[in-house]
Design goal:
Helices cover 19% and strands 47% of the residues. It has 224 residues and is an alpha+beta fold.
Length: 224
């Protein structure tokens, strides 16, 4: 009886450690979605130079190429990296003459995250890519799917469904072509912008984010 109890306890302890490992990995993957963990292997989208211009009016986002930020460290998996992290933004932005603005957009796309072997082991318990897929399937995250594969570490593709996003607030512009927006909740972001005729491009200003989501890239808007 004593051996059976000890065996049962080992099974429970192993399961608890495996759950802890899953939780650690999920924390890292979630961090990539919400801003990133580990380090980036380089985005594929380039910024566009600022030139200024008149932003007043309603603009429709006609194209976008943005790369999710992955420069923030996450203690659960500091060596994880992302690559080919591309997000698509669609919707409208209105800049009013009184210095207020509003946005209505959808954001979606995919991020490929590589988890090295060191990220797959916690307290001596290692999980496989197949086990990660099973865990993701049994505990789905709304709007996000994960598919992992690999033999040495796991390459996980996070697909983010188009998610609606809206914001209102105030804005200011400079003659050099920097637009600063302050959302109703107080969050501030800056973008380099360039208006030529009825076309405007926006890219994250150095050291800031674009729409709270991207670190590099360009969105192109057409005036309605």
């Amino acid at each position: 009886m004593g051996k059976m109890i000890a065996s049962d306890r080992n099974v429970v302890d192993d399961r608890a450690m495996r759950i802890s490992t899953f939780a650690s990995i999920m924390g890292c993957l979630a961090a990539f979605v919400n801003a990133g963990c580990g380090s980036s292997s380089g985005g594929t989208c380039s910024n566009t130079a600022a030139c200024g211009g008149d932003v007043v009016g309603t603009w429709t986002i006609t194209s976008s190429c943005v790369s999710a930020s992955s420069s923030m460290s996450n203690s659960s998996c500091p060596s994880a990296t992302s690559s080919g992290s591309n997000l698509t933004i669609r919707g409208t932005v209105t800049y009013n003459a009184d210095g207020t603005y509003s946005t209505n957009a959808t954001i979606g796309g995919s991020i490929t995250v590589y988890l090295p072997p060191s990220c797959l082991t916690t307290n001596g318990v290692t999980v496989t890519c197949d086990q990660l897929n099973q865990e993701f399937a049994s505990n789905p995250t709304a709007g996000i799917t994960f598919t992992c594969s690999g033999s040495s570490g796991c390459s996980c593709v996070e697909t983010i469904a188009a998610e609606a996003s809206s914001a209102t607030g105030t804005y200011t512009t400079t003659s050099a072509g920097v637009v600063t927006t302050t959302d109703a909740d107080g969050s501030i972001s800056q973008s380099d912008y360039c208006v030529k005729g009825t076309t405007m491009t926006q890219s994250p200003h150095a050291g800031s984010t674009m729409m709270g989501t991207a670190e590099s890239g360009t969105i192109t808007l057409t005036k309605n």
